[in-house]
Amino acid sequence: ETGVTQTPRHLVMGMTNKKSLKCEQHLGHNAMYWYKQSAKKPLELMFVYSLEERVENNSVPSRFSPECPNSSHLFLHLHTLQPEDSALYLCASSQARQAQKINSPLHFGNGTRLTVT
Amino acid sequence: GDSVTQMEGPVTLSEEAFLTINCTYTATGYPSLFWYVQYPGEGLQLLLKATKADDKGSNKGFEATYRKETTSFHLEKGSVQVSDSAVYFCALTSNQFYFGTGTSLTVIP
Predict the structure, then answer these.
(1) Which chain A residues have a beta carbon less than 8 Å from that of B42?
(2) Fewer CB within 10 A of the end CB, N or C, for chain A?
């Protein structure tokens, strides 16, 4: 496989469930990202792992927990979500030249459509 | 802080019409500029990019020129096709990526 692969494509979960989203990139990049895409809102950057350093958006609730075991894999662990967390969650990767100096394009996966009931 | 503003949609055009989607930006320093496209059910795909002033990015008949004097990066295509129906996002990167809110384009036969 090439590019950025996300699984599952669709996920329906209750508010008390625990689930994880998975992302894998085959591009040799050294930075990976989680974005949230909601209708009629700008893309929201949730988490960045760049050159093995984690950068967070402090407005992201603690019920979202990222994990990046290596430069090719990224997870988003979900716990006790709310209905307003329903959205498309996009993973992306890029080649960062130095920490937090990101000029190369992002490559996105096709996303996981999450519905919280 | 840095930001991107793009025209709101939705935009509906007939096939072979001329397309312009406006994008302006605010940034300190010298950002790189991008246009991404998102087809239904898919993630964002890079359409074109420009890394310095007066650069023109082009791909699949789409073009955009990095205008520092007007802080703009408008997307244009001379003759749209039904297959161009998608959501288009303008973006910049300085120390992180900033995206516009997206412009939905529908091309009718």
Answers:
(1) 110-111
(2) N
The C-alpha R_g of chain B, in whole angstroms, comes to 13
Q: Does position B7 have pLDDT exceeding 80, yes or no? A: yes
CA distance A56 to A113: 22
Mean of the per-residue pLDDT values of chain B: 94
B96, A41: Cβ pair inside 8 Å? no
- Among residues A50, A59, A116, the alpha carbon closest in space to that of A88 is found at A116
| Residue-by-residue pLDDT tens, chain A, 117 positions | 569 999 999 999 998 889 999 999 999 999 999 999 998 788 999 999 987 778 777 789 999 999 999 999 999 999 999 999 999 999 999 987 664 555 688 999 999 999 999
Nearest Cα neighbor of A113 from A5, A14, A10 is: A10
- Among candidates A90, A105, A111 on the partner chain, residue whose Cβ is nearest the Cβ of B49: A105
Q: Which of residues 31-70 of B touch A (CB under 8 A)?
A: 32, 34, 36, 41-46, 49, 51
Partner-chain residue, chosen from B32, B41, B99, that has the shortest CB–CB distance to A103 = B32
- In 3D space, the residue among B101, B57, B48, B105 whose CA is nearest the CA of residue B80 turns out to be B105
The backbone region for A49, taken as left when phi is positive above 0, alpha when psi lies in -120 to 50, beta otherwise, is: beta
Over residues B52-72, mean pLDDT: 96
Q: Is B4 exposed, middle or buried (0-12, 13-18, 19+ CB in 10 A)?
A: buried
Indicate if the alpha-carbon torsion angle A71, A73, A77, A78 is positive or negative: positive
